[in-house]
Records
---
Amino acid sequence: MPTKTMHADLAIIGAGVVGAAVARELARYDLRVVLLEREVEAAFGTSKANSGVVHAGFHSTPGTLKASLCVEGNAMFDDIAEELAVPFRRNGLLMVAMSADEVGVLREHFEQGWRNRVPGLRLLDADEARRLEPGLAPEVVAALYAPTGGVVCPYQLTFALVENAVANGVAFMAGSPVTSIHLRDGRIAAVETPDTIIEAAWVVNAAGLFADRIAAMAGDESFEIRPRKGEEYLLDRRVGGLVRSTIFPVPTAVSKGILVIPTVDGNIMVGPTAEDTHDRLDFATTRAGFEAVFAAARRMVPSVSPRDIIASFAGLRAASSEDDFIIRPSRVVRGLVHAAGIESPGLTAAPAIARMVVEILREEGLVEMRARRAFNPVRQAPVRFAHLSRAEQASLIEMDPAFGRIVCRCETVTEAEVVDAIRRGARTVDGVKLRTRAGMGRCQGGFCMPRVMKIISRELGIPVEQVTKRGGGSVISPYPAKALLSESGWEAEAESGPGPKSEPGADPRAGDVVGAERATPHREGPRVEGVVARGAAVRAEGDVGVRGDVGAGFGARSASGR
Amino acid sequence: MNVDVAVIGGGPAGLAAAVAARQAGAGRVLIIERDVRPGGVLPQCIHTGFGVKWFGEELTGPEYAGRFVKQAADAGAESMLETMVLEITRDLRVVAVSPRDGLVMVECGAIVLAMGCRERPRGALAIPGTRPAGIFTAGTAQRLVNIEGVVPGRRAVILGSGDVGLIMARRLTLEGVKVEAVVEIMSYAGGLARNIQQCLRDFDIPLYLGHTISRIHGRDRLEGVSVAPVDDARVPIAEKEWFIPCDTLLLSVGLIPENELSAACGIELDPATGGPIVTDEMETSVPGIFACGNVVHVHDLVDHVTEDGMVAGEAAAAAAASAAATAGATAVTTAAAGAMAGAEGGARAKGGAGAGTRTTTMTGTGAGARPAHYSGRAGVPAGEGNGDGTSRISGTRTLGEIRPGSNVRYVVPQRFVQGGERGGGGRTLTISLRPSEPAENVVVEVSAAGKVLRRQRKERVRPGEMLQVSVDRRTLPSGDGVVTVSIVSR
């Protein structure tokens, strides 16, 4: 039962990119706004798994919200990216035709784009297309080029929107799933989470995959979310130069097809698949998806190779029973505004969706929408040590020695950046990763994960055993050393503890091996004293920055695994 | 800062290189180590099995490291701990950062690369399924258990039979974790035979060869894995799949030499090893830069890593001495040219320990600022590859090539100095190699120009176990001669 009560003018349910954009837009006004998120951090739902493509707007049917909000949102990205210090690049979109039939589809999209007022569209012949993108397959016969297309980091954008909203007075409550909505006289009265009742007369439903359930809590069953899964495969930055523009096939009935995306971070991402699913928590990649993605991507860009995969993941699009975005006041309950059914091009449209939601709230009579005088649209950029000049790096370390302690070697992320990410709201290893890129490089956290766990433990004041990957039950290393020994029954088995079956002495190594393991203290870690005069001495337990790669003496390279 | 030999990495390879460089007469030898303590991965390897060859006794990882840490200190090597190298340049400068010294630039007479290797992560395998907590590389789990003092779960499955995975199967068992299975996609184990016996069989842990994990289950935390045998194309056979409940999955699916720094400075890498192409003196394609240990190729035994390090350290000392001798004649130019190096050297000479190394500006990194002695040797411009036969040590020399032949995945070294009397083995040249496939009753054959130079019988060879074969240098071909190492049936 909730034990706390809060009073607000408005509650936004869902801190994905749409909810976050609405929060920031509402922060411009003198309102008490609460942003609720069921996950432990913002962007941990659909936004985290977004492709990051800022669409041009030629894909959507003229007259739809998707078409108009995509084009409007696209035009807003330069300002937003600058104000919020979010990496964004207009790298251009190229839709390629692989046959004469497909050239006709290009023309239709050119026409459609023109009607949607997409600027700068051009039809290219095969030579022009290849001059733009030498990595294209020889089978490409023509292409539609949209120079306004871009790439952004979807979760960085979401984090930045939330941070800026919070800096301007919005209350952000993570780990707060909405359990019920209270109505009074046919309108919204309050929103309830497991520990708090938020009394508010207005609710924006930006709950993504769960938007229909939120609507139903208020008695509105006018739409249904029908999740559509997409699998994505991220390639090593080594091959980041395969293409410069985002490469699209001609679209299918249900999706824009499988793309080759040069991410804003310099990797290549291929995907997504499009598969309807009933399970709103089905984030599994599949062998079929893997095969489909690479077959489709290699058809357009032959040098894309599964050998370069460094990560794969799946996300769910919050597609709905309606063809278009659902951005409207509820027809059932007063005070409820939906921003639901947000699938592609939702990321692009998000800033425009936020504006539209605010207009709806104004029309619906949300009073006192006075501009907040102190609104500051600028978010202070987090430091990216790896991107700085040597001189800048040197002066940063002078200022704060934690900039001299590299936590993630692949992406050159410093301890100071990890600490800053936690101060900005990261609570989990994944949260630190998405904000700083620690663990996102080619070793995928093998080196930095224990270090990041220790920094989180220290900064949040929790035992390292309680640190999670992404909240909930995703605890990483839950048991203190020796905690399992008693329950395994081994302590009782023999005074000397567990041992191998071989007779000690039969193989002189066997006995020694086990003996040595038992004799070594674990908590402290083996101690090796420092080499010589200069350099830090062995540091005390609890310090961050201890390393352990896998090296000499124990590892034949095996060709195993798949 | 100026040093004669900079060693990148303070694991067993780097420690040995530092010891050997000092013993060979190098003046200032500096180990740059990113951890707070030297030893590389050894401090977390608390099992025994280290040092049988080198010390003639069986040590734990921390003990083995401890001996070399002491040797390095006794020999007068210096070290910078908690210091990460960001960049190595072809004109032998090292840029590094540490919380203590800030951004540091080191001008070197020679550099030894000893960065070791890293583990292949899950992402590279693209195993279908979810991405819950509870999936670790074996070495990361080893660190969590042995250094951080936390245990990752109650029931574990291990994918891949590399040695770290085998060691961790036993280690987790001893911590009270139930290790359900070790699953290996190949038809043979990746790790050493002794580890299969001592870490799996002795503890009744099943090893499934020719199997893989076909799917990962669980939302927040791992709930289990599907395991299936694979067909000839190593694709899992879906009909034969079964489920093993577990909350922990360790991956021991390969180690990758850590060569981002090497690649960024243009050192030629061997795709078969993932490490630099080296001469028998462990010199890379960039003159004056040497490499040893797992950064060159992944070794099974630390003792071999130490041997490598000794060769590299001695050769690096010679290279630094030769550079310094040339520089003696142009000492004034050197001081003038290396603006920053000069300033730093001065501060160091006055005994300004910490503060002296703190750099405030990072000017003088351009090629124009290169100290004169770096290009003052035998008319060979620094920064040219040794593919054409130039070497740091004595100017222009001729290099022969060593190539893998049938059933040999790779050989190290890939080059040898013709007529070279120096090098670790004196008159003999020792070649390390790994077979591509397991085989029995074979001969390791070294040949050149159709002539067999050496035949060495082996009862059995496995990819998981490195082989070494030695040849008499006097028998090696001259000119463009190529030496081939093959494994042929007897």
---
Amino acid sequence: MTRTTLLSGAAALALSATGAAAQNACTTGNTIEDGVLTIATGNPAYYPWVMNDDPESKEGFEAAVAYAVANEMGYSDDQVVWTRSSFDQAIQPGAKNYDFNLQQFSITEARDEVIDFSVPYYSAAAAVLTRQPTADAGATNSIESLSGLKWGAAASTTAPTMIENLIDPEDPLLLYDDSADVVEAMKANQIDASLFDLPTALYLSAVTLDDGVLVGQFPPALSENPDQFGLVLAEGSPLKTCVDAAITALEQDGTLAALESEWLAGATGVPVID
Amino acid sequence: MTVHPDTEAVAPAAATGRTRRQAYEARVRRRSTAVAAASTALVVLAIVTLVPLAPGWEAVKRSFFNGEVFAQTFPTLVQAFLWDLAIFAWSVPMITVIALAVALARDARSPALFPLKLFGMLYTDIFRGIPVILVVYLIGFGIPGLGLPRPWNSPYIWGTVALVLTYSAYVAEIFRSGIESIHDSQRAAAASLGLGRADTMRYVVLPQAIRRVVPANMNMLIALQKDVALLSFIGPVEVLRQAGVFKSLLANFTPYVGAALIFLAVTIPATRYADYLMARQRRERS
């Protein structure tokens, strides 16, 4: 009896020792500034990923995920510092000014050769955004109807490739710098439709466009090559194992799902494209 | 028998039919060519050996000078560049006509034509003063937003309009400087021959003025060829945008280097031609 208690006590001690060691590797020496976790997001950061372009408020899905990952790694909220970066800054060679970067970066094989991705923290459905006149003109959730539309997309996203692969439109794509310009082109009637991740599409159709309509979506579960978002780290970053462990833990204890339902409005009611 | 040092030098020169002065100058030229070659070789050698020693060179090489990515993307980039050439080609005639009209409006000398002169001044002031990219954005999204039907709201049309408006302002100023560089005595002489104002401008002033500003306009053409890429901001997938798409797909900047090479292949010959024209003009004037 005593013996077993002693043994289990020793095992517990050993366990907590490895736990502390793992935490030490995550909290000391490996970040760009010791004892501080520097997290980058877009400039500006968009709703609903970061509310009011203010990640310190912890409001918005990515802001909340970032703090949850930081806490899981052993950082308190006060030890988190935010910075901003563009997509190009995230992939350019040389020293980075962040420990990890999250702004809906889709994980792709080619990108993975240049930078490190964490395990995914979100699998996005891709949704087709159009305006009411296009829907009235007969655009439906069939590939056949969609391929006849005039398509545009934000160039630095995975959307252009997805549109070519999934929809294969008859007219050539028009490409823009960011989602704001895509919406502007849609208002100017230069394009009929564009593809966004579902939360962004919901936001654009409800807030930015007066007459936005989501005619269909490609749900991640049914898609061969789903759009998965990962945290971006510098190639070979020593933090990758810590970040991966944190995200896996958050996924298993249901935190990610809870944050998703808190910040990313339900996608029910958007028909699936077939 | 002692040979005078001069005769020795003169003999070979005389054999090739050159004077001593020419032989000396040829020697100086050879020597400066050799020095220039040696110093260039040294600088190139220094760059080639020192740059790879930088700690980040391997990473830079992988993301900017990646042969595999280059081979994979270059053919598509060349194809996309055809858009740049097409937009350039249809913009140039419009720019020439509008710029000439604006330059003539600014040169209007009759008091009754003052509104025309004022318009010319306002036009050049406004479009020379706004960055091209802003004009492209404002016209490219703004005017189609008024509710034009397709295909009249195409970004190709309104992007071209933005480029033409901006570059006409630049080129108009060049034409005007050419017109003003023609001495007033030419107009006086034309008047004394009985030519009216319009004929003086058409047969006396403009032929000289336009010839005089050809090199300056060549420079504008080169700048225009590069600025065509700004149309990518409002939709067209030309070479800059295509390179950007590859960049974000492959997380690699090599496509930008490929696009730069394509631009250089067009702009370097054009620059050399402009240099040649300018040199020829200098010779004619001196």
